[in-house]
């Protein structure tokens, strides 16, 4: 079969969907990756995997109707030219416009993967409520074109059905996230010595980085030997963190180090992984930390709760609750003997539920591949 995968960010075809693309290619299918270029090495890296890259003018951020219309017509043209047997889209704009384009291009087998709901679903009233209603209606139009809709967790599936974005009888599949490559993120013993807490995230409020940093500042005063590392790019937008606030955290002892090319060294050198996000599809960074053999502290919310067996491989806290987060993190400082066995439990859970090979098999089965 000829399969087109549509994404909203070129490098994600390699970093997030690479194992899936290879699995499809190895199964004998002809695979196209369709996305904005974003990085000049994307076509070369995909070609090395046997995947054909086609650039599409999809704007990852913003709601510019004219640019989105340009993207829609570009996708229709691409799909009419390539004539795929199946289309799989992921992230919001590819799901909406890719699905509609596939329908208009005459593709019979159309699938989408909901990888997280993002800023638009953070609030259903006020100004953001208007954005929620708009995005909800756009999702409804796009997903009406789909044979099957895949979700990374059951909470998002239930939300889409209960808000009538998709009908109750729509065929859906739970994939357990995007999966994690247990070989690439090889486990290692938890380092001995002073604890190192790590959070890898874009510096956005809804990722919970404010809660992580403020809990870290409090704990640093009580336990100056502990280290707290916040790794990730400083995204600018309505949900971004101010430069002044980041400087305050740094003055309080938080190591804000910016983005890194390869997170494996950070994971290897940390003791505990923390992500107090407000909502996720399934947090990829947590899966990577689990595969690395690290205990987890995260929030009891959609997507995140799927990654923790409470008291076995980590702890969950309420969303936005800095005091509860501080207490959960402090447990590891006071009970360092728990680090290794909880880290081992994380690895075991990752292999059981989130192995990328199992996830990809679920996706391919849902697509009839």
Would you kindly provide a written description of the structure presented here, covering whatever features stand out?
The chain is of the alpha/beta class. The chain is 42% helix and 16% strand. The protein contains 14 helices and 13 strands. A seven-stranded parallel beta sheet has the order 3-2-1-4-5-6-7, sandwiched between helices. Strands 10-9-8-11-12-13 form a six-stranded parallel beta sheet, with helices on both faces. The N and C termini lie close together (8 Å). The relative contact order is 0.11. The model has no long low-confidence stretch (mean pLDDT 94).
Distance, first to last CA: 8 Å
Helix content: 40-55%
Structural class: alpha/beta
Radius of gyration: 21 Å
The average pLDDT score comes to 94
Q: What composes the largest sheet?
A: 7 strands, parallel
- Which term fits the overall shape? globular
What string, H for helix and E for strand, traces the elements in order? EHHEHEHEHEHEHEEHEHEHEHEEHHH
- The strand order across the widest sheet is 3-2-1-4-5-6-7
- Residue ranges: pLDDT <50 for 5 or more in a row? none
Number of DSSP helices?
14
| Strand composition percent | 15-25%
Q: How many beta-strand segments?
A: 13
Keywords:
369 residues, six-stranded parallel beta sheet, alpha/beta
């Amino acid at each position: 079969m000829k399969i087109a995968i549509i994404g909203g960010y070129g490098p994600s075809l390699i970093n997030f969907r690479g194992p899936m693309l290879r699995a499809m290619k190895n199964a004998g299918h002809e695979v196209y990756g369709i996305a904005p270029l974003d990085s000049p090495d994307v076509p070369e890296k995909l070609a090395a995997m046997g995947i054909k890259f086609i650039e599409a003018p999809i704007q990852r951020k913003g709601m510019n109707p004219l640019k989105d219309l340009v993207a829609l017509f570009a996708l229709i043209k691409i799909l009419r030219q390539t004539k795929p047997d199946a289309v799989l889209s992921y992230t919001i704009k590819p799901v909406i416009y890719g699905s509609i384009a596939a329908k208009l291009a005459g593709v019979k087998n159309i699938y989408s993967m909901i990888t997280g709901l993002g800023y638009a679903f953070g609030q259903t009233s006020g100004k953001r409520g208007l954005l929620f209603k708009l995005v909800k209606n756009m999702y409804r139009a796009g997903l009406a074109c789909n044979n099957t809709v895949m979700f990374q967790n059951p909470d998002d599936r239930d939300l889409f059905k209960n808000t009538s974005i998709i009908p109750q009888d729509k065929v859906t599949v739970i994939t357990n996230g995007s999966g994690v490559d247990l070989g690439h993120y090889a486990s290692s013993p938890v380092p001995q010595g002073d604890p190192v807490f790590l959070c890898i995230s874009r510096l956005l409020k809804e990722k919970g980085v404010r809660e992580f940093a403020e809990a870290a500042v409090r704990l640093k005063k009580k336990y100056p030997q502990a280290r707290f590392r916040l790794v990730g790019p400083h995204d600018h937008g309505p949900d971004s963190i101010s430069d002044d606030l980041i400087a305050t955290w740094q003055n309080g002892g938080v190591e804000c180090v910016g983005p890194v090319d390869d997170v494996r060294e950070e994971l290897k050198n940390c003791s505990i992984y923390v992500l107090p996000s407000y909502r996720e599809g399934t947090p990829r960074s947590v899966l990577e930390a689990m595969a690395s053999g690290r205990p987890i502290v995260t929030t009891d919310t959609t997507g995140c709760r799927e990654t923790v067996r409470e008291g076995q491989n980590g702890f969950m806290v309420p969303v936005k609750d800095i005091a509860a987060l501080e207490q959960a993190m402090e447990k590891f400082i006071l009970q360092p003997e728990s680090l290794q066995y909880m880290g081992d439990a994380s690895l075991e859970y990752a292999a059981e539920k989130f192995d990328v090979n199992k996830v990809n098999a679920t996706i391919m089965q849902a697509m009839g591949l």
